[in-house]
């Protein structure tokens, strides 16, 4: 604190005004101890500021843009519209008198207020088997809806990676070994409602796919004819999502007369496969505190023994929900807080019992299929940025793991429930950003980080590669009738012989316009369903 002494002017020198104004030339000179300003230094300062200010502003803008792109976007809860499915919470927590969806407190399986929108027949009765009455699960055992009849000639593709979860169409036979110059005959083309990478499930001559209607701001579960591509029914619910390298990116599961789909923001829908009537719905973020990965959910649900198996992360590492009633059969605790990834659950046999293997955010976990108890946990395998490929069981209690972003690959031994790394290889030998290799003839086949199709031994050695003239980006591939079908990013489909002796290309054709032909493929009855970012098509690969 300063003080003033009598009439002394206590203002600072630059605040004082002279008592008289005289000739400017006679104004007092600056004090001798204050050096005159240096013009050279002043110019340097100006130049530094001229460069530094735009750089700082640009870096702040890039940071804010990154936060917007990668940030966690909460879905907007909107009251159900006519024909919408109901957004619900945990499937076993709603009591009579609870509020309906649209209110943040809504939870539990609920009765559909409106039947689904149908295109190829009459809608089913409102209130599916096992659906709630007054918001409460049915007490009596629910009768399953009629299973959709299996198509003839080539089986089905009921979930991600097919009926055996190995990406092989085991029942396919008699597929053509050559194509016309324009490629296989195109049976239909379907413009998708929104951009994405969600693949199809096929059962009984029907195609099930999760879409996103950008104009209506709704996730849309669609059932279409495999023969014509016409919609049979559609089921939707409101959720606002921005395009972030696509929106929908999961494959539904169809079994026991039900279809289960996991939406980009963590909404799980269980509906009747025959008419689309919703049985129950769960918002994983509300029910379990699930953290949705960057670029939205990529996990594909599975159905086994009438139960939907899902790995939400959050408060439960894995859950099993009865499709008919919506009741939780079991939950796996998650004390370490391992989060959901883009990878999917893989069933496998371990020591004579079925185990669900899942690469979570903190490592790989094996969960007992009978009661959800943890069989093993292995924190030694994680993938930075995005963990996408699914584990591949290769026999002898071994699991093959791979990833992109520098992860490479690992053979994990889980003998006796004690996990340990058998070997690990860098990604320049084999790694994968998105798709999961195929285990065939005691070898692994997949598109590696150098975009080539690769054959890998179970010791982690490259047996052969397709070469730089046959590259595919990060698109999908599958095996059927001794042939690999490999789809490049730009929509070029290649057929190659499935052999451990070398790469032998049999046919190639541009079948999609592109870009980003990344979605998993599906094959049934000699019909191959594939898509790029905006368009889905069906090709006749039996009679091209």
Explain the overall architecture.
- With 544 residues, this protein is mainly β.
- The protein contains two helices and 34 strands.
- The strands form eight sheets. The chain has a five-stranded antiparallel sheet, with no helix packed on it.
- The longest helix has 32 residues.
- The N terminus is likely disordered.
Proportion of residues in extended strands: 25-35%
Poorly predicted parts:
1-32, 67-114, 121-141
User: Structural class from helices and strands?
Assistant: mainly beta
Query: Radius of gyration, rounded?
Result: 30 Å
Indicate the multimeric state. single chain
Query: Fraction of residues in helices?
Result: under 10%
Q: Span from first to last CA?
A: 93 Å
Topology, number of strands: 34
The overall pLDDT average reads 81
Continuous helix count: 2
Give the CA-based shape.
Answer: globular
Question: Order of strands across the biggest sheet?
Answer: 1-7-6-5-4
The largest pleated sheet is described as: 5 strands, antiparallel
Name its key features.
mainly beta, 544 residues, 5-stranded antiparallel β-sheet, 5-stranded mixed β-sheet
State the gist of this model.
It contains 2 helices and 34 strands.
Secondary structure layout:
Blueprint: H1 39-70, E1 117-118, E2 168-169, E3 185-191, E4 201-203, E5 206-213, E6 218-225, E7 231-238, E8 253-255, E9 258-262, E10 267-272, E11 278-283, H2 284-288, E12 302-304, E13 307-310, E14 316-322, E15 328-333, E16 346-350, E17 353-360, E18 363-368, E19 374-378, E20 392-395, E21 398-403, E22 408-413, E23 420-425, E24 438-440, E25 443-447, E26 453-456, E27 462-465, E28 477-480, E29 483-487, E30 492-497, E31 505-510, E32 522-524, E33 527-531, E34 535-540
Parallel strand pairs: 2-28
Antiparallel strand pairs: 1-7, 3-34, 4-5, 5-6, 6-7, 8-9, 9-10, 10-11, 12-13, 13-14, 14-15, 16-17, 17-18, 18-19, 20-21, 21-22, 22-23, 24-25, 25-26, 26-27, 28-29, 29-30, 30-31, 32-33, 33-34
